[in-house]
Amino acid sequence: MAGRVDLDGNPIKPITICMIGAGGFIGSHLCEKLMSETPHKVLAVDVSNDKIKHLLEPATLAWADRIEFHRINIKNDSRLEGLIKMADLTINLAAICTPADYNTRPLDTIYSNFIDALPVVKYCSENGKRLIHFSTCEIYGKTIGAFLPKDSPLRQDPAYYVLKEDTSPCIFGPIEKQRWSYACAKQLIERLIYAEGAENGLEFTIVRPFNWIGPRMDFIPGIDGPSEGVPRVLACFSNNLLRREPLKLVDGGESQRTFIYIKDAIDAVLLMIENPARANGHIFNVGNPNNEVTVRQLAEMMTKVYSKVSGESSLETPTIDVSSKEFYGEGYDDSDKRIPDMTIINKQLAWNPKTSLWDLLESTLTYQHRTYAEAIKQAMSKSTAN
């Protein structure tokens, strides 16, 4: 760690980071990176520490004096402002961000992503503290290309579907499509942060993740999450593969997505942390435009990768089609393509993702097979016995 310098050759000084949502998927990987590769201190704030327990115990770990866990629900805990005051930088990762919740729990979704984030922004602004806020690629909504005639050659023009932080419009569905409650709440908190920067000098960076994938993401229903829950697409497919069930393709699996490996994405976040002069005032897409597939193609690839890592043969019928109404309930709507423009992050932080889709799926499914396969077998044999 000695002699570390930023992108402009300046020595990197140790800082204290208040990380809200440190116990989640992204937070756990970011904490690992900060502990193993930097001298920074982390005040880890969350309601659970399961995913970072290996960083907190035993007390003899090399970084034991650089990470503290604070079990706090930011909805109603007066200790939060004190922790933000103690830190040089606050990173807010807290959110409800599971698509199945957007139209079944729209109020919780709006409160979690807008109302609960308001005090964090306020405390940072009032105390002159820097903020890195995690938003979402969902705030772009649908692409302009989605509204062109199906046979229009303009659909092939990147100007109509590549998403740019500073020029792309944010196009949401009608109010009755409650799926957009998440994107709308996230967009409004972004606008508030941007306004705090413009009016009150808040130093901020906004991150828009595009499908970050890797070990510890999301949950496997009934094993490390609620049995009735519906996680995001990759964990849904993983759950099906582990249980040897067909993968459910919502509305034919025609939506297109790009996926990025969590470790590549965390490298980008560390650059933002340690290069404030280059990151402040910017909104960054963090994704991998080279890893674009339809959801159907993702299912086919995951089936092949899982056969490789588990040694199990594929099912005779690996996928089945379901309607979005049947899968997500009334009020669901979807974006068509999500391809990030990488111009700003490339220019400001000289960052590019490295890991291919096959490699990131192999890493994730190897972890999930090793972690969950036995627990799922036991759960299935119990239910059969009953």
From TrEMBL:
<dbReference type="InterPro" id="IPR001509">
    <property type="entry name" value="Epimerase_deHydtase"/>
</dbReference>
<dbReference type="Pfam" id="PF01370">
    <property type="entry name" value="Epimerase"/>
</dbReference>
<feature type="domain" description="NAD-dependent epimerase/dehydratase">
    <location>
        <begin position="17"/>
        <end position="287"/>
    </location>
</feature>
<keyword id="KW-0520">NAD</keyword>
<protein>
    <recommendedName>
        <fullName>NAD-dependent epimerase/dehydratase domain-containing protein</fullName>
    </recommendedName>
</protein>
<dbReference type="InterPro" id="IPR045869">
    <property type="entry name" value="Arna-like_SDR_e"/>
</dbReference>
<dbReference type="InterPro" id="IPR050177">
    <property type="entry name" value="Lipid_A_modif_metabolic_enz"/>
</dbReference>
<dbReference type="InterPro" id="IPR036291">
    <property type="entry name" value="NAD(P)-bd_dom_sf"/>
</dbReference>
